[in-house]
Amino acid sequence: MKIIEFEEVYSTNDMARYLAQEGEDAPFWVISKKQTNGRGRRGRVWSSLSGNLFATYVIKLDDVSKLSPLYSFIIAIALKNCIEKYIPNKQTLLKWPNDILVEGKKISGILLESWIDKPNAFIAIGVGVNLLQSPDIEDKETTSIKDYSKPPEPKYLLSQLDAEFNILHEIYINEGFDPIKKMWEENAFGFGKPVTIKSHNENFFGIFNGINEAGELILIDEAQNIKFIQAGDVNFTH
Ligand code: BTN
Questions:
Q1: 227: domain CATH number?
Q2: Which residues have C-beta atoms less than 6 Å from ligand 1?
Q3: Amino acid 20: pLDDT
Q4: CA-based diameter of the chain, in Å?
């Protein structure tokens, strides 16, 4: 496991991409104690409070066709497996597309980005985990590992995450998305529950029915039509 450490960066995702483009051999992790410009999904800011984990993993793919959003499910399951070791007696669940929730509260964030440098493609998997502090996020409750137990050192959690990710990545390479999809759905928050999804300028309502082979959310609307949602913010209504 190769880790490149920083005291402060704008964003570990930006630094990871810069290093890869400068010729750093992937796979590698970038970890930083501070982020001054941490980014969240959908153009949001990721408030990077001190003591939390900020890291990005870069993977090099030998073929552009291997680029896939499905990596976000692999990392989400890996992260859940790591986080739950520190959360005794409480269920840790996955919320589409890649949130991890403890008692319904967000404890981490994942930001997947990719670029092409022919013939290769690169994926940067950014991971933020609330170890010591819970950032304020609009319309969302947040928590941190410290609310439940003594948090690990960021680098220690990263080594656990690397190990978990590699196991699941191997499964994905050898057996495809099916076993990953199954693991994700078994741990999904709100399966079969009514949900509202804000996607671009549209709102969708229906029953959350898992994910398809492309990682899209399956929604059954009031007229029993099946819809596949590619991106959006999910809110469980009851
Ligand atoms: C989300 O909106 O839930 C995703 C948040 C992702 C935050 C992590 S922190 C490390 C990496 N660097 C960033 O700028 N963002 C990701």
A1: 2.30.30.100
A2: 11-13, 35, 38-41, 44, 46, 54-56, 109-111, 126-128
A3: 98
A4: 53
